[in-house]
Amino acid sequence: METINSNREENLSEAQHNDTVKEDPEDPNIQTSDIQLPQEVLCDSCMDGPSKALKSCLTCLVSYCEAHLRPHLENIKFQNHRLVDPRHDIDCRTCEVHQLPLDCFCLMDGYCVCLDCASEEHEGHTIASVGEARAQIEIEMQNRQEEIGQSTIAAEKTIEKLQSNNDFIKSSIEEISTLVEQQFARMQATVEEARKRALKVLEGEQRQALRQAESIHAHVHQRRTELMKTVAQMDKISRNKSDVDFLLEYTEWKKGTADVHLPSVYINRMNHLTSFVQVVTDATQELCELILSSYRDKLSTFGKGGTKSLMQEFQPSPIPDPETREDFLKYTSSLSFDPDTAHHFLRVTEDNRKLTNTSPWQHSYPDHPDRFEYWRQAMTFQSIYLGRHYVEAELSGEGAHVGVTYKSIDRKGEQSTSCITGNDISWCVGRKSRGFFAWHAGQDTALEVTDIKRIGLYVDFHQGSVSFYDVTDPMRLLHRYNAHLVEPLYVTVWLSKKDNVVCLVNER
């Protein structure tokens, strides 16, 4: 007890001594008018007319004058409180270990530390005062803000260029559509001309056949008239009652009698026109196939090399491909799921980085045009485009799938093409009853892995590759797709069964 009282008296005398020393000028030659005195620290407990503080308590985070400091000096309950010279920033945070003000900043570890920490755990590290560190970081922040400002201006210019490019594309398509219409109109005119010529040939055949039929008809009609006259003469001879006269007339008539037989007449039913129909049909079939194949081949060749990135073209990176996990982590992209895309059976948690299939429990998400309605999928809010990107995802449950797709994937359809396993703009891997598989355009590829909990997804736009890795040491390639990537990609998850979980791991 005597020791405690002695310590209190020493603290009080020390406080009074320090206060006295501070009031006396250190150098009598220095005029007080030349010294800019700091603002005094006032007692936080004085209600009327605050007095000058004598000490600050790092435990209470309050400054006390001599009168209000006495409980700390005399009451045993305050014997563990730490008293220091009056501080303006007494309310600042203190070190949890040493209960000292966080006066320093470790530039290597990025922590605010006290003097004891600087001399112990952070010994040998680059240490600066919090003021100096703040000044240095503010300069870095200012430089960073300038970079962001320049990037923002560049983004705005790019957006303007994209909008201008969109307008140019629309106007160009309209012009080209007009030219295409003209070419097809020309082709239609040619087809119409061929049709008229075919019909003209057919009309010529008709005229010739009818003319032939009319000529034969006249000939037959004339023969019929002659035969009828002959019959009339024979009737007249037959009516002669005198045998002598009958014989004489018959003998005379017979001398001038013409052939009474009608030769067989060929009636042309134009059976040969069947071959005409066959010629037209065959020619039409050949031309249609020729037109379609020609357009298909030439347009497909154009399509393969016609679509390129609207952004600046970059040369392939001279930096070698990553090999170790540390190499891949350098390209980590921090992503989170967009709740506006999540299916009603998917719950989004952990800062929108975790998806859980809660079937049959639905979530009351508002209607949104980006929300998947049939397939239980969700897409990230951020996209990855150009350069190299790496993402790790933890998969849990049979039916958990993760991959990348274009933003244009159908969100409302029930067809398999609306799922990341069933279209040609998606690449993914996942687990089903028979093991792990990779999917693209409805085609699955079995992966030589039995059980895996974390997948590494690596995209290299320059090489046009989408790769999936087993995140172990060393990294093991599971499958790689080579593709012509022309649009930003979005990490997308499909959870086909209850309690399936996928969590994006943001590590660097």
Automatic annotation (TrEMBL):
Keywords: Metal-binding, Zinc, Zinc-finger
Stretches for region Disordered: 1-31
SMART domains: PRY, SPRY
CDD domains per UniProt: Bbox1_TRIM16 (cd19839), Bbox2_TRIM16-like (cd19769)
Domain of life: Eukaryota
A GO molecular-function descriptor: zinc ion binding
Biased composition (Basic and acidic residues): 7-23
The B30.2/SPRY domain, residue ranges: 315-508
GO cellular component, one term: cytoplasm
Protein name, per record: E3 ubiquitin-protein ligase TRIM16-like
Organism of provenance: Echeneis naucrates
